[in-house]
Each structure stands twice: as structure tokens, then as C-alpha cells.
Design goal:
membrane, 17 helices, 4-stranded antiparallel β-sheet, single chain, alpha+beta
């Protein structure tokens, strides 16, 4: 007897496998030991350096800001919009070597800091600040992160795509961060600079598979602190660490060195060379727990909705359609508000604008996650996710204008020019203003995350040159279409709403409405926040897409349930409530972000704190519009459906 595999497991397996597919557009590069006639085979291996970041600060910095060895002929590969927005600044490094042979203890440069020089003191202080806040290097070889692999608990190996500048032993003798890896790091009030790296490059030879050269499948390193006494007689086996005292009293000289070893491994394929990094991140079991937790919530809600639809609603409709008019007047329930249920809401202009923007965000999110599942936006394609999202948002102005205009016309609004302008400018304007203020702080702090003025102008040009005109086009077609026809007429005189119980009052219902949707996403939210603020790699778009679908269902069902209960209590003000019920999930998102900030992050400094909450507010606003729109349209469909099947005299 064959076991049946649950559909949920099949979907997750499909999407997870999709996210691991070979990424189109990124072709493998072959390396040869000697120069050949084959132009596709390279001998020089280029090591690129990216911006440095820290879990204790939101401010990333360019490699050049720290006083490290610099490449004389510096080259910067072109960066896409997503990389610029995320503060990535990739440049060539002074670490030069060829594909085999091994390199033993090669000098990169000598940095000397004179105690009498204010400039040297400032440079050394900035380097110390980087070590104190545990700033991490991010190096790249063949578009692959150079990782630092080390053992963690339960004999697990974790491969970090970054490694620290150095570390600090505090005045009370406590070894901070990476200083715990070496017992030699024991001198109080002393910084230890990691001035040497042992790089190990693993390659896959093409001889057995019929292609020339070799392909790099892994690049790891081990940072070391070595005190070189003579730059002409380097000894990388020296166990004495490179100490930099907290107090700058004597001249300090730091010699940067490196070693490179090559190892052949034909079991690792080029297409799966990222696996060793991803496997070291122990998330899979928690992800399955997250999915099962979300599915339980969905099944519970689906059962409730099904019970209401099939039993309660069916009985209500049958009863309402059978009784005569006199009996109906004595009845209570949702039919009694049929003459008021489609009465236009207050502030209909603002609601229609929010719904237009929410539709734009919803379509953008769906397409972006779908493409990410297919492997187009994997971590190997740097900045592609953000670039895709921004471009899609700009191009989706037409649906936003159409939805906003059509609903505003349905609400009986006549100020169509104001509606179009607010749809095009209100929410994007709030996001841009917040973003610009955060950017000012980054400019002041000289951070690499500060968006260049030219990029800001380009973003404004995309907004006003593409998104706004498309919004006007969508609004034009929306206003040309007839208003959405309601299944029942609206009475001229509003019906009085009876006294409500505590649970059917607006605020308790809205607060309760966001709990279940948030319960579906909070585990996934932890990994997303980790990838943003703790600089961990996020690659599980299959799980994320499934959670996205579950969130849609949960928001819809929770809003429909609460909407039905309120209509049964003869409260017909459902327009704004349906939007705010599921939109309140964003408030829980903000509360969780506050909890994450204080419990999981070690961020210090006013600038970093302001940046964290500034960017969090952008996320909360986008999520509010997204979830609110889902809840509104689910409730709108539900209300139209139930009042279209009941007879009204």
C-alpha cells in the first residue's frame, strides 16, 4: 500500500527545490594553471572586498574608510540599484594571486601610526572603534563569499560569510567576540588586529567532465593575529599576536600578510557550491515548525469560515427568504442592515487611496516572491531582490490608480483630481521622506549605506517620470468605468446601531483581528529580521512564498469572521473596520520589532537606534497597506456575496 504524501509537503518541496535552481545569467568561470589559448580560462584570481558591517551598529562603512591596505589600481564593478540601496560597495583588493601554486606568508602592506600625528591617531581610533563594535570584512572570490568556518555548539560547523577586523580584551580581562578563539588574547585593555589570513580555495577539475580548466567551488579563510617583527623576514608561524593598546602612547606598526592554499575536490559541483554555507545555517527544522504552526491556524480559521458559510449563513438565508415581511421586521441579524451596509464610509477618499497603494504593494510582493522561488533572485545575484521590487513597484502604478479611482467613484466621491494625486504621492511621499531623513543621518556618519545624490535623483525620476503617469492612466480608466453595482439599495436615513457588547465594539475587534495573521508569520519574521539587521544570508524563498499564501488566507478568513459577527450585531460600519482588522497585524509587527531590538540585537548609539526604528516604520507602513488591502477585499467580496443571495423587498 502506497503512502499518500500531503499536498502541503509537496508544495514546500517544490518551492524549496525551485529556490536552489541554477541561476540564469551567472555563468561559471574556468581557471587554468598556465596561460592558454582559451580566452575563457583565467589564471589570475581576483579578490574583491565589500563594505564592512556590524551587529552592534546599523552603520556599514566602505573598506577604504578603515585604514587597510588598498589596491593601487582600484577597480569597482558596476552595481545595480538594489546593491546601492543596501549599501554594498564592492571594490578590488590588494590581495593578488594566481590559480596555483600555493602562496606562503606574502606581504600586502605596512601601516605605521605615529604617536605625534593627529591624522594617524584618528585613523587608529577608527580602526579601534571597528574592533570594539565587531565590524566584519566581507570578501568575494568568483562571486562567492569568502567564509570563516568554525565550530559551534553540538559539534556543528557554522560558515560565516564575514570575519572580524579584530577583537578587544576589556579592562576587566573579559575577551569580547572573536577574542575567545585564542588563549593568547589575554592582555587587559588591548585590541588584537587580525592582520593575517590563511585562505583556502577548493576547486573542481574539469578533466573528467570534458571541459578545460577548473572551477572554484569554495573559498574559506582563517583570520589570525600575528606580530611580525621584520617586514623583510616574515614568519607567519609566529604565535605572538599583534597587540594594539587601548591607550596610544607608542608608535604602532601593523604588517598585513596572507597565505593561500589550493585543494582539489571533484565531489562538489559548481552549481551546488553555495550549499556548504546554507547547510551550516540550522534553520530547516524551525521552518517546518513555522509552516505547520501556520497551517494549523489556517485549518482552524477555514473550519470556522466553512461552518459559518455552510451552516449558519445557509440557515439564515433560507429563513430570511421564507418569512414574510412582518416577521422579518421582528428578526434580528445581518439582513436587518441591508439598507445601510453599502452606505459610503467616512473618509472614503483616504480609504480608496490606501487600497490603491495596497494593491500595488500586493502585486509587487507576489511577483517578487514568485521570481525568487524560481531562483532568479538568489543570494548569488547580489541586489537583484531589491532591484526587482523597486522596478515592479514603479511599473505597477496603473493598478493602484485604477483600484483607487474605481472605489472612490463607488463611494460617491467627486474630487477625482485630489484622489489621483493622493494615490500617486501620499504613501510613497511618506516612505521617501522617512528614507531621506535616514539618509541624512547616514551622510553625516559617512556610512556606505548613504545613497549617493545621483541615485536619489534617479529614484525621484522613476517615481515622477514613470510611476505617477502610470497612476494617472490607471485612474483615468477607473473613473471611466461605471461604479461597482451593489446588490441592495441604500436607505436615505441611516439606521440606528444598537448597543454593542465589548467584543463587537470596533477597537477590541480590530485588536483581535491581527493576532492570528501575525501568529502565522512571526517565526518567518525572525529570519527576515536576522537577514536585515544581523547580516545573515536569507535564501528560503520557498518557505517564504508558502507563508505569504498562508498569510493571505488567514487575513481574509479572520476579517470575514469578524465582519460576519459585527453584521449579526447590526453594526454596518464595515468598510474601515475590514481594512483595519487585518491591517492591525502591522502593529504587532512593530511590537515584535521593538522586542527584537531589545532582546536579540546589541545595537548601541543614537544614530543606529534612530536608523533601526526609521527603517522599521517604513516596513510597518508597507505591511499595514498590504494586509489591510487583503482584509478589505475579502470582506468586500463576502458582503456582496451574502446580500446578493438574500431576497430584499
Amino acid at each position: 500500500m502506497k503512502r499518500r504524501i500531503p499536498l502541503g509537503f509537496v508544495l514546500v518541496a517544490y518551492f524549496c527545490s525551485c529556490s536552489a535552481f541554477y541561476l540564469p545569467g551567472l555563468a561559471p568561470v574556468s581557471f587554468c594553471k598556465e596561460v592558454t589559448d582559451n580566452e575563457e580560462c583565467q589564471t589570475d584570481i581576483q579578490l574583491f572586498v565589500n563594505r564592512l558591517d556590524s551587529v552592534e551598529s546599523v552603520l556599514p562603512y566602505e573598506y577604504d574608510v578603515f585604514d587597510f591596505c588598498k589596491d593601487i589600481k582600484e577597480k569597482r564593478p558596476s552595481e545595480n540599484l538594489g546593491q546601492v540601496l543596501f549599501g554594498e560597495r564592492i571594490e578590488s583588493s590588494p590581495y593578488k594571486f594566481k590559480f596555483t601554486p600555493d602562496v606562503k606568508c606574502a606581504k600586502v602592506c605596512l601601516k605605521t601610526y605615529k604617536k605625534d600625528s593627529k591624522l594617524d591617531a584618528a585613523k587608529l581610533d577608527f580602526l579601534k572603534m571597528g574592533m570594539q563594535l565587531n565590524y566584519q570584512h566581507h570578501w568575494i572570490i568568483d562571486n562567492m563569499p569568502v567564509t570563516w568556518c568554525y565550530d559551534v555548539e553540538d559539534n556543528q560547523k557554522y560558515c560565516n560569510p564575514g570575519f572580524p577586523i579584530g577583537c578587544l580584551v576589556t579592562a576587566d580581562g573579559r575577551a569580547k567576540d572573536a577574542c575567545v578563539i585564542n588563549s593568547e588574547f589575554n592582555k587587559k585593555s588591548t585590541f588584537y588586529v587580525f592582520n593575517h589570513v590563511d585562505i583556502k580555495i577548493t576547486y573542481h577539475s574539469g578533466k573528467s567532465e570534458g571541459w578545460s580548466g577548473s572551477r572554484l567551488v569554495a573559498a574559506t579563510l582563517e583570520p589570525k593575529s600575528i606580530k611580525h617583527t621584520d617586514e623583510n623576514k616574515l614568519n607567519c608561524d609566529n604565535s605572538s599576536p599583534m597587540e594594539v593598546p587601548v591607550d596610544f602612547k607608542d608608535d604602532v606598526s601593523i604588517i598585513y600578510t596572507y597565505s593561500v592554499t589550493f585543494e582539489e575536490n571533484n565531489t562538489i559541483k559548481w552549481a551546488s557550491r553555495w550549499d556548504y554555507i546554507l547547510v551550516s545555517m540550522p534553520h530547516t527544522n524551525i521552518q517546518w515548525f513555522s509552516i505547520m504552526n501556520s497551517l494549523v491556524i489556517v485549518l482552524f480559521l477555514s473550519g470556522m469560515v466553512a461552518m459559518i458559510m455552510l451552516r449558519t449563513l445557509h440557515k439564515d438565508i433560507a429563513r430570511y427568504n421564507q418569512v414574510d415581511q412582518e416577521d422579518a421586521q421582528e428578526e434580528s441579524g445581518w439582513k436587518q442592515v441591508h439598507g445601510d451596509v453599502f452606505r459610503p464610509p467616512r473618509k472614503g477618499m483616504l480609504l480608496s487611496v490606501f487600497l490603491g497603494q495596497g494593491t500595488q504593494i500586493f502585486i509587487m510582493t507576489f511577483i517578487t516572491l514568485f521570481l525568487a522561488c524560481l531562483g532568479f533572485l538568489s543570494p548569488a545575484n547580489r541586489g537583484a531582490l531589491m532591484t526587482c521590487a523597486v522596478v515592479l513597484w514603479v511599473l505597477l502604478g496603473t493598478p493602484a490608480g485604477y483600484v483607487s479611482a474605481r472605489l472612490y467613484k463607488t463611494f460617491g466621491g467627486e474630487k477625482w483630481k485630489t484622489n489621483v494625486l493622493l494615490t500617486a504621492l501620499l504613501c510613497p511621499g511618506i516612505v521617501f521622506a522617512d528614507f531621506f531623513l535616514m539618509n541624512l543621518i547616514l551622510w553625516v556618519e559617512r556610512s556606505s549605506a548613504a545613497i549617493p545624490f545621483g541615485t536619489l535623483v534617479a529614484i525621484l525620476a522613476m517615481w515622477f517620470g514613470i510611476s505617477v503617469p502610470l497612476t494617472f492612466i490607471g485612474a483615468y480608466f477607473g473613473f471611466k468605468k461605471a461604479a461597482i453595482e451593489q446588490p441592495v439599495r441604500t436607505n436615505q436615513i441611516p439606521r440606528q446601531i444598537p448597543e454593542q457588547s465589548f467584543f463587537t465594539k470596533p477597537i477590541p475587534g480590530i485588536i483581535m483581528g491581527g493576532i492570528l495573521p501575525f501568529g502565522c508569520i512571526f517565526i518567518q519574521l525572525f529570519f527576515i529580521l536576522n537577514s536585515i539587521w544581523s547580516h545573515q544570508m536569507y535564501y528560503m524563498f520557498g518557505f517564504l512564498f508558502l507563508v505569504f499564501i498562508i498569510l493571505l488566507i488567514t487575513c481574509s478568513e479572520a476579517t470575514i469572521l469578524l465582519c460576519y459577527f459585527h453584521l449579526c450585531a447590526e453594526d454596518y460600519h464595515w468598510w474601515w473596520r475590514s481594512f483595519l482588522t487585518s491591517g492591525f497585524t502591522a502593529v504587532y509587527l512593530f511590537v515584535y520589532s521593538v522586542h527584537y531590538f531589545f532582546s536579540k540585537l546589541q545595537i548601541i548609539g543614537a544614530a543606529s537606534t534612530i536608523l533601526y526604528f526609521g527603517y522599521t516604520m517604513i516596513m510597518v507602513l508597507i505591511f499595514f497597506l498590504f494586509t489591510g488591502t487583503i482584509g478589505f477585499f475579502a470582506c468586500f467580496w463576502f458582503v456582496n456575496k451574502i446580500y446578493s443571495v438574500v431576497k430584499v423587498d
